[in-house]
Amino acid sequence: MTNHWRDIRHADVILINGANPAEAHPVGFQWFVKAKLDPARGPGSGGGAKIIHADPRFTRTSALADIYLRTRVGTDVAYFGGLIKYVLDNKLYHEEYVKNYTNASFIVKEGFDFKDGLFSGYNATNRSYDTSTWAYETEGDVLAGAAGSTQARAKRDLTLEHPRSVFQLLKKHYSRYTPEMVSSITGIPVDQFMNVAKIVGEMGRPDKVMTIVYAVGLTHHTTGGQLIRSGALLQLLLGNMGRPGGGMNAERGHANIQGNTDHAISWEILPGYLRIPAPGQKNLDQYVAASAPKKSDPNSWNFFGTNYRNFMVSILKGWYGDAATKSNEFAFNFIPKPAANSSWMSIYDQALKGKMEGVILSGMTATSIGPDSNQILKALSNLKWLVVMDPLPTTSSEFWKAPGLNSADIKTEVFMLPTTHWIEKDGSFVNSGRWMQWKEQVIPPEGEARHDHWILADLFDRVKTLYKQQSGKFPDPIMAMTLDYKDPKKPELDEIAREINGKDLTTGKQMASFANLKDDGTTTAGDWIYTGSYTEDGNLSKRRNGIQDPTKNDPTGMGFYPTWAWSWPLNRRVMYNRASADVDGKPWDPKRPGIRWDGSRWQGDVPDYPVTMNPKDPAAWLPFIMNGEGVGRLYSNSMLDGPIPEHYEPVESPIPNPLHAQNSADPVAFLYDQAAGRPNRFGTADKYPYIATSYRLTEHEHYVTQHVPLLVGLQPQAFVEVPEELAKEKGIKNGDQVRVSSERGKLEVAALVTKRLGPMKLAGSDKPVYHIGIPIHWGFVGVTADREPEKTRFWLANALTPFVGDVGARTPEFKAFLVNIEKIR
Amino acid sequence: MAFQEKPMGFFTDTSICIGCKACEVACKEWNQLEGNPAHFTADSFDNTGQLDAQNWRHVQFIEQVPDNNGVVMTPTPIAGGQAWLMMSDVCKHCKNASCMEVCPTNALMRTEFDTVYLQKDVCNGCRNCISACPYGVIGFNEQQGVAQKCTLCYDRLQGGLTPACAKACPTESIQFGYLDDLQKAADARLAALQKQGYAKANLYGRDTKVYGGLNAFFLLMDKPAVYKLPNEANATLPSRNNFPGYVGGVATAVVGLIAGLLAFRNGRMNANNNSSTNPR
Amino acid sequence: MPPAEHFVAAPQWEWWILGYFFFGGISGGSYALGTLLRFAGDPRDERAARIAFITSFVALIPCPIFLTLDLGQPFRFWHMLIDTSGGGLAFKPESPMSVGSWALLLFGLFSFVSFVGAIAESGWLKAASPVARALRGTAGLVWSAIGMVLGLFICAYTGVLLAVSNQPVWSDSGWALGGMFLASALSGSAALLLLFARTRRDVDPDTAVRLEVADRYFVVLEAILIAVFLVTLAIAGTITKVLGVWLVLWLIVVLGLLAPLAMARWDVARRWPPVAAPLLALLGVLALRAVVIFSAQT
Ligand SMILES: Nc1nc2c(c(=O)[nH]1)N[C@H]1C(S)=C(S)[C@@H](COP(=O)(O)OP(=O)(O)OC[C@H]3O[C@@H](n4cnc5c(=O)[nH]c(N)nc54)[C@H](O)[C@@H]3O)O[C@H]1N2
Ligand SMILES: Nc1nc2c(c(=O)[nH]1)N[C@H]1C(S)=C(S)[C@@H](COP(=O)(O)OP(=O)(O)OC[C@H]3O[C@@H](n4cnc5c(=O)[nH]c(N)nc54)[C@H](O)[C@@H]3O)O[C@H]1N2
Ligand code: SF4
Ligand code: SF4
Ligand code: SF4
Ligand code: SF4
Ligand code: SF4
Ligand SMILES: [Mo]
After folding, report:
1. CB atoms within 10 A of CB A581
2. What CA–CA distance (Å, rounded) separates A476 from A454?
């Protein structure tokens, strides 16, 4: 989240797209309700915030929404694009904000182009873009600044008239997104869309603010990145970024998935979103030059780029200690430089190719997660060994029992390492609002369960011993790794938290801020964005000064509660908050201030800006200090699938893209099977006429709660939601057993017939189009499975999903694929 | 912090219930109820079914999504809490409690917080209260041989703790407190909804019209019957039938006795007259 | 008056309760008839009267047993009488079950004493002849009069017990149920006595004839109350609950009602074995209670 849960109560309008907070974030949803109940909020004369939920299914969130839009999965770019057009055409955007706080005025190089659904620089053979054609037009020579973090100044036209200005390019790009076009893509009737457009249009006023909330309903698409960006664009145009009650807010997943991401759970980054070094990068200079954002305006601080090297060196110093010296580039060469994509699906793709010997799964069950569970099962069967670290049996720790597999043929050796559950350990959760909140151990571990970090530490110790005894190809990184814990085999999470914050090696004191990190090897930081969380004052995530005493603990009255836990960066509660005030530092909305300039300092939230920098000073930094441009990006040349969001159909879609049938789906989406020389297994509308989407229910947490009897009682078995009209057509009665099949697999489950799903009218399809809803929670382990194994044979939702990923993170398309449905009995 | 000894209860605002069932689970956890054997009802998202000995809270799911006119559904009228109703049902802790009227053992008592509490150790399992409760709240626990229902967390209240269900409710759809405060909050909320044009919104059990008032009362978004709640006309106490029942009995008895006496007296003469004709 | 809405749960009152209602009715009814015969004051009816009192007590024996077995906590049957919550006696006038418990206890006493008296009069159990002597004359009449009131209460309150609830059918017919059960108890008991009268040589044949007449009156009374019952259900809009499969039981009820009448009208009846009609009547008594108890709870 750019903002945080509690802040949602400040919104006048709440757009919910690709999220179902009432079910997936029930506790966070209280803030939506508070906004709704607050008469001071809302469009027009107020009377309560308006919640607008766009979802193919009428969910428990829709039930409390003021406006529900039945939309088609994977089409939110069209929806937001339509809103962007409406805002541009009717000059409803926040002009001052757009001029000064976004890159609307930046001029793009000659040669940039968009035709028939393709941006310039497309290479069809390797399905990728050469993004150099998307660069800004520059003038003069490279700007001064930290090595590798600058470029020549980008040309700007503050009148926004220049035909190649970002603003004009946007206008041109979205001119195609007429209400009729939007309706024919999304299925939302024109009148309903216009009704929403009018409300959203009002949110460009400085005294109004709107938030957009999303989750994996936008990310689980081959177009995920652009789906989200299109919302962010709308927010920038309306001037809602950086403001309390505004922002682009991702509701995250597991209780600590935010912490996971920050600490580099995914392969392409190091902790703190530093890029993983790439092959060929011999030294820090090359690394920084290739990775750091580039300062493209003299008034851009480009804080991230400027400090890139400091952050990297501080990590290296923290990891390799004395072995990291100036002379050896602080052991830069110890860090692996992966030559091939190593994202989640790639691991199993490698296993399918027989290139993976073993896999360690921790806190996650590959079989159920999918996509394409049957193929994942094949992959697991291809391994020599599989280690599962989990407190409970999972569909992976027992994968050979999967229906359809003959355990006799499976050679994979499976090791189960019982770990403690998070409830059995202390440590911190980082919530969607970036709050790092410490938690205590609730119950002592049972049986032989061991903490994950102890298992890994012990494992590391044994590997190290083996290296000692037998040396090996490249022992240095292992040997040099610092583990200065009381007991290196049993590190305490508090010790690790301390280490992550980092310290000043000259004084031995904990660092207070990442601003002081250096590239001379005198500072450490395990993850720079957490520097400041564990200072000499101790572990700040343990702070609990909350609503016991609001006057004392919430001085601004804006719900920042600065001494409740700690939020990154630097305990800032609303990111980009410099943009919550106008050029002179006056809050856009005095009733809902983020920060304000009092003549000598910035007051309010922890400013996303130098605290004493006078905004009137001509040398003052631009508001978005993290970006190379210094302003919000309506146009981004760092996206791999296009600088401006464009609507593409999901890989499996019932209709050709009404905008450009010849390039219907995302041209750079990664098709694993094809790339690996396996046949693609995509279904077409003639065989699989219905759109399926998979999702969660309040009652279960994915797969794990299949072990919890009380929750199993609330939702005892697998089912699919079937629209009433379709059910009639198919002779399916409520509660009947049905078979749902895709090109990749099938489900055999009960049908829940409901009016909450229904038909929609789309371009290029004479018949009404239907969605079928598929909850993800069931499989062949758990209470029900143990009781009636026969019944649960075909309960893995991911048996249906396609083995494809988006171009960036390679996120699977869990949310949009084609199926057929038939009645069994 | 202990509670004052004055009427306490729940104001359940169904317009902000998200059907998360946290209340159901919290209740089971606190009261150590196992729940009935799991079974899929295919009745919207409700697999609990009813209030009974194992379920002292039950979240109802009522789908009334209007027909899709032609191809798309009209959104505005259906959103805003009227297309898919969710309501966390519970013992109403009636001021005039049907269950208390009939209980022969006085196992059902009124606490210092004006709530209705069922004493497990007094109850002998006659199940008369079950026949009486107009809301189908009470259930019979086969294992323990006693009737059971929501205690309004009497044990927690005595310790100054909020009831488990209210504590767990994320949206404060279940509000716990002193009845007078709750009633004020409810009136304000109803006014706000009516201002927003929700004509059907109504308070159930807030005033004395049903059972002299309910300590656990509700804000509903539709007619009470939709939520399986008897309307004012039907919210009647069992004891209403005591008088007519006995009067009918006495009247019949009198007629019966007279008839009997007549038969036995005149019957004699008749018997004489035709006794001769009677073959023996 | 709008049709009643019911959202109650079923108390699962089933076979034990049915059994109790039946025997309770027969016991109370028989006691009443015994008393009436004494009041009618014809010495020739004395034999039948004794049989009535004996029948009453014998029929009463299963009642407390059935009731206790129906409890979830049988060993707490005494909680009906002793208040373990507030202390003192548990007596709640507004609770038919509470009142009924006390009535059953008292009636048990009267029924027992009259029973002892009856067998003593019959010449068995010499030891008890003092009781018999005490019960001769006005003292006896007063005693049995009080016993009769209690007996009739037992017959009627079972109906009120059902009515004092919020169950469909039961609570929809407040006026009729008590009377209906009482009437059918009288007709059933009359039928039973008739059966004994017919099968025993020592009973004066005229007594039998008079019992027949009484039975006919009771049947008419019962029929009227059943009609009232059905009408009230129709008004409440819950009549459908007692139809459908339950028509089978109603058929038995009707046969039970017609039997004694038929007996009077056509002398086909004469060709029946003398016990057929009374047995049918008794079945009718059972069926009537069954249909009321079970239909409401399904
Ligand atoms: N109860 C519960 N809560 C959870 C979890 C759980 O398992 N159970 N899991 C946690 C985790 S790990 C995560 S990631 C989050 C996920 O949180 P959410 O993303 O909110 O959960 P989902 O149910 O996956 O999807 C949300 C909604 O997106 C809709 N949707 C799908 N595709 C589209 C689309 O293209 N456009 C639009 N507008 N809507 C679309 C679906 O119909 C669904 O209603 O939940 C977290 N919270
Ligand atoms: N079709 C489809 N597929 C999906 C999704 C979808 O929407 N549709 N959603 C995707 C998303 S967003 C997610 S996050 C995944 C979720 O998929 P998973 O993360 O696999 O789901 P969980 O059941 O939450 O698995 C958590 C596991 O961690 C274990 N665990 C708990 N605490 C600890 C601990 O402290 N240490 C260790 N080692 N283990 C622990 C639990 O026992 C449990 O087995 O599913 C993905 N798959
Ligand atoms: S499960 Fe935990 S993280 Fe999810 S909503 Fe509930 S409290 Fe929040
Ligand atoms: S709701 Fe039922 S159980 Fe609760 S107090 Fe009222 S009558 Fe008694
Ligand atoms: S079951 Fe228990 S609580 Fe209910 S009426 Fe009988 S004794 Fe009273
Ligand atoms: S008050 Fe206590 S007993 Fe009653 S429903 Fe809530 S949690 Fe359960
Ligand atoms: S906990 Fe609150 S919101 Fe959730 S179901 Fe219960 S009442 Fe509704
Ligand atoms: Mo997730």
Report:
1. 25
2. 22
Q: How confident is the model at residue C40 (pLDDT cuts 50, 70, 90)?
A: confident
Terminal Cα distance for chain A, rounded: 46
Q: How confident is the model at residue B276 (pLDDT cuts 50, 70, 90)?
A: very low
Residue B273 reports pLDDT greater than 50: no
B169 CA → ligand 1 middle, Å: 21
- Quote the DSSP letter at residue A443: S
In whole angstroms, what is the distance from residue A309 CA to residue A314 CA? 8
- Cβ contact B21–A698 (<8 Å): yes
Q: DSSP secondary-structure letter at B205? A: S
Q: What is the 3-state secondary structure (H, E, C) of chain C?
A: CCCCCCCCCCCCCCHHHHHHHHHHHHHHHHHHHHHHHHHHCCHHHHHHHHHHHHHHHHHHCHHHHHHHHHCCCHHHHHHHCECCCCCCECCCCCCHHHHHHHHHHHHHHHHHHHHHHHHHHCCCCHHHHHHHHHHCHHHHHHHHHHHHHHHHHHHHHHHHHHHCCCCCCCHHHHHHHHHHHHHHHHHHHHHHHHHHHHHCCCCCHHHHHHHHHHHHHHHHHHHHHHHHHHHHHHHHCCHHHHCHHHHHHHHHHHHHHHHHHHHHHCCHHHHCCCCHHHHHHHHHHHHHHHHHHHHHCC
CA of B210 to the centre of ligand 4 (A): 12
C178 confidence band (pLDDT: 50, 70, 90): very high
Q: Are A528 and A570 in contact (CB under 8 A)?
A: no
Mean predicted confidence (pLDDT) in A525-551? 97
Phi, psi values for residue A566, rounded to 5°: -155, 140
Mean local confidence (pLDDT), A477-491: 96
Reply yes or no on whether the pLDDT at A414 is more than 80.
Answer: yes
Per-residue tokens: C226: 């059943």
Query: Is residue A58 less than 8 Å (CB to CB) from chain B?
Result: yes
- Contacts with C274 (C-beta within 8 Å, 6 or more apart), sequence order: C195, C198, C199
3-state secondary structure of B86: strand
Locate the DSSP E strands across A513-573: 534-535, 538-539, 566-567
Calculate the average pLDDT of chain A.
96
Which ipTM score applies to this complex?
A: 0.94
Ligand 7 contact, B169 CB (< 6 A): yes
| Minimum CA distance residue for ligand 2 atom 4 | A369
Contact C13 B245 (CB under 8 A): no
- Tell me, in angstroms, the distance from the centre of ligand 3 to residue A226's CA: 28
Q: Please say if the pLDDT value at position C122 is more than 90.
A: no
Residue B26 Cα: closest atom of ligand 6: 7
Q: Test A714 with B21 for CB contact under 8 angstroms.
A: yes
- State the chains in contact with C (3 or more Cβ–Cβ pairs under 8 Å): B
Residues in chain C within 8 Å Cβ distance of B266: 213
For range C160-188, the mean pLDDT: 95
In this prediction, residue B68 carries a pLDDT of 65
- Give the 3-state DSSP-derived string for A472-527, with helices as H, strands as E and coil as C: CCCCHHHHHCCCCCCCCCCCCHHHHHHHHHCEECCCCEECCCHHHCCCCCCECCCC
Question: Which two three-digit tokens encode residue A808?
Answer: 């960036």
Structure tokens at A709: 């009897």
Residue corresponding to tokens 């309960």: A795
In tens, the pLDDT along A578-598 reads 999 999 999 999 999 999 999
Answer yes or no: is pLDDT of C271 > 70. no
**Facing residue for A710 by CB, picked from B35, B78, B170:** B35
Which residues on neighbouring strands pair with residue A822, listed in sequence order? A739
Q: Is the model's pLDDT at B279 over the cut of 50?
A: no
Residue C260: pLDDT over 80: no
Residue A17 Cβ contacting ligand 1 at under 6 Å: yes
Residue with tokens 């993170």: A809
Query: Contact, A15 vs A249, CB < 8 A?
Result: no
